[in-house]
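Objective 1b of the project was to move from sequence-level analysis to a structural picture of ligand recognition. The entry below was assembled by the postdoctoral researcher (A.K.) and checked by the PI before modelling. It contains the amino acid sequence of the target and the SMILES of the bound compound, magnesium ion.
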Amino acid sequence: MFKYQFRWDTVWGSFDFLMAGLQMTLIVSGITLVLAMLAGLVIALLDMSKFPPARWIGVTFGEIIRNTPILVQLLWVYYVLPIVFGVRIESLVALVIGLSLYQGAFISEVYRSGIQSVPRGHSEAAQVLGLTPLQNFVRIVLPQAIRMTLPPLASNFVQLIKFSSLGAVISVSEITRRGMELSATNFRPLETFTFIAVVYFLICWPLAMGIRWWERRLQAQ
Amino acid sequence: MFDGIGFAYALNMAGIPIIVAEGVSKTFGTNQVLTRVSLPVMERDVVCVVGPSGSGKTTLLRCIALLETPSEGRIVMQGTAISTPQQEKPVKAAARAVRSDIGMVFQHFNLWPHMTVLENLIEAPLRVKKLPKDQAVASAETLLAKVGLSDKRDAYPARLSGGQQQRVAIARALAMAPKVLLFDEATSALDPELRREVLLVMRQLAQEGMTMLVVTHEMNFARHVGTRTVFMDRGEIVEEALGSAFFDSPKTERAQRFLQQFED
Ligand SMILES: Nc1ncnc2c1ncn2[C@@H]1O[C@H](COP(=O)(O)OP(=O)(O)OP(=O)(O)O)[C@@H](O)[C@H]1O
Ligand SMILES: [Mg+2]
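Corresponding predicted holo structure:
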């Protein structure tokens, strides 16, 4: 029979070490969310631009990002960008850039569907009343679109928390990386990675539940 | 030379119309929806447009409301072209100048759900007419009283019944003091028991001399409130008559067949 002597004390002993990693995880996710929201805005504006070349750039960029693996993109940013531009980038910077672009490509779609969720009639009513296209967008479309995009943006944050674990591969010392380092010295991968999985779950699950409740409430309105 | 109706009609047409559709055609792709429709609307006219589903009533109204560009013909407001197939610069400028003189009430109300009733009413007066806020609020309150919804001032549209929402939409349109008000089946989306309150407001407006162009399936409203009835079928105006003449003695077979479905 499977007889295993659990040694949780090896994890408790490094609790602070791991929690510092968690802090890094949350910082990376937070900064990335903000940057991804900006990147998403740029991509969405390019996508909806009147100028065909701008549209082409936006669409191509979005398609490439959405249809290649995030891990490959991170490795590309970390190893290839420095060669192309002849500068060394910190692994942390590479992680933030890579994740922001990746998530930005998805967020641009969130914006787009948020805008499209506003019934045409609402802006037609504004148009007939004489509001300019800019007033129409800022006063009628945007406030409604933002409400629709908030829950998906929060979901993106949850995704970012999980994706930031990929930073381990390019040695960003977030919680997963620290787990790898710890298990290499305490030889206790089972306890270490179980603990880390539980930490991720305890953060992501309540968030996901909250978002689901929030979305249902928005839909009910 | 004129029979009774024709004479009155000619008299009524003597002034300058407020708004005219002049030979308006509209094609979507290969689908010709309007074919050279001409319709002048005189001051204080209540023109009711009736006709079977798909006959182009909404499209005509949308052309007049400057929401669609005609493929042929033009829209003229008090002598000035405000919409043409090419939308030339001076035409667009003219359209901007008279934009808020044309009000429209939609089948599905189209109130802005993120604003309260009052905010819906003052939005355009504040931003388009640049009225001072207290003035915009005061006139919005007067209009709300007029449509019987003073107590809903701070409610969000979602809290109102369909009939109440449509009355707010009418008040919102009136807040810009339009010279002509277009109604596209303003009661069709409402439960029968809620239609009356909206029709009453429309009737009151007509009695106060509001110039109205009303697309409707409410034959009683057209008959008793309308000053003129226009019957459309397959993108054309087939028949028009003053007062209730259209209902008492429809001339064309198509109109007779159309009216039959409303008989009990
Ligand atoms: N944006 C559009 N693109 C393509 N076809 C359209 C468009 N708008 C209207 N049509 C077509 O034009 C025709 C006339 O439509 P319209 O809505 O003007 O009719 P209607 O008389 O208002 O009908 P109803 O009584 O059902 O409201 C229909 O066949 C419709 O499918
Ligand atoms: Mg219609």
